[in-house]
């Protein structure tokens, strides 16, 4: 037999597991004690603790190199023609040409007036050939070719060509009208590329062939 317990003696109940449908929240004062950290959009994008990236500064127009303009005028100086020293053989050949032209005027053309005019033209040519060449100022612009104060518009020409005379270079502008003489100017070699580019943008470039008169003039070194 077991002794009867005293009804007045307290007995600790057996602990049972909780069947509550929710968990008890932590102490709100403890939760509020933690610091709250808010992140800006830049920090959330680049990561906390990292410095925000700086946006690249676009270059200013002053920092960009200026591109060369196709309409920028080209200027240079050159002699109006190439001066050649003339020896005794030159005068002999010149006299033969003059006599031949006089004979042609009398026998073939049968023009006494033209036969008289030939010696006058020959004398004027001798005086002109002994005159030293002038140094002229040339400018190529959008309007045309400027020779000192005179303008030759591009509209008066249908093309151009480059001619080499020994060590010298010249450019010849071919006129649109058939019986007008072409304009021939000399230029230094270092300015040749800029001159050809300027003319090529406005006139077609052609291969020039010297005719009989041009060959005779160059042969006589006029």
Strand order of the largest sheet: 1-2-3-4
Briefly note the structural class of the backbone.
alpha+beta
The proportion of residues forming helix, as a percent range, comes to 25-40%
The CATH superfamily of the domain at 74-220 is Pleckstrin-homology domain (PH domain)/Phosphotyrosine-binding domain (PTB)
* Subunit organisation of the chains: single chain
- Please name the CATH topology of the domain at 74-220: PH-domain like
Global outline: elongated
Strand tally: 7
Return residue spans where pLDDT drops below 50 for at least 5 consecutive residues: 20-25, 42-46, 61-68
CATH architecture level-2 label of the domain at 74-220: Roll
Beta-strand fraction estimate: 15-25%
Q: What about the largest sheet?
A: 4 strands, antiparallel
**Highest CATH level, the class of the domain at 74-220:** Mainly Beta
Give descriptors for this structure:
single chain, 222 residues, alpha+beta, PH-domain like, 4-stranded antiparallel β-sheet, 3-stranded antiparallel β-sheet, 6 helices, 31% helix
Note the topology:
Layout: H1 28-32, H2 41-46, E1 74-79, H3 88-109, H4 112-129, E2 135-140, E3 144-147, E4 150-153, E5 157-165, E6 168-175, E7 183-187, H5 192-200, H6 212-220
Antiparallel strand pairs: 1-2, 2-3, 3-4, 5-6, 6-7
Helix pairs in contact: 3-4
């Amino acid at each position: 037999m077991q002794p009867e317990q005293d009804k007045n003696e307290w007995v600790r109940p057996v602990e049972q597991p909780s069947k509550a449908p929710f968990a008890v929240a932590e102490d709100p004062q403890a939760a509020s004690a933690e610091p709250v950290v808010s992140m800006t959009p830049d920090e959330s994008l680049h990561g906390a603790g990292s410095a925000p990236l700086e946006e690249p500064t676009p270059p200013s127009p002053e920092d960009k190199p200026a591109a060369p303009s196709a309409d920028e005028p080209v200027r240079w100086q050159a002699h109006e023609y190439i001066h050649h020293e003339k020896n005794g053989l030159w005068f002999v050949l010149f006299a033969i040409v003059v006599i031949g032209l006089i004979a042609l005027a009398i026998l073939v053309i049968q023009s006494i007036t033209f036969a008289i005019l030939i010696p006058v033209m020959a004398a004027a040519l001798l005086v002109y050939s002994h005159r030293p060449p002038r140094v002229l100022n040339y400018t190529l612009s959008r309007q045309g070719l400027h020779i000192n104060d005179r303008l030759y518009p591009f509209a008066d020409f249908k093309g151009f060509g480059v001619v080499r005379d020994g060590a010298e270079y010249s450019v010849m502008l071919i006129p649109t009208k058939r019986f007008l003489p072409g304009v021939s100017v000399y230029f230094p070699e270092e300015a040749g590329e800029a001159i050809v580019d300027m003319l090529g943008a406005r006139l077609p470039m052609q291969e020039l062939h010297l005719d009989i008169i041009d060959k005779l003039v160059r042969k006589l070194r006029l």
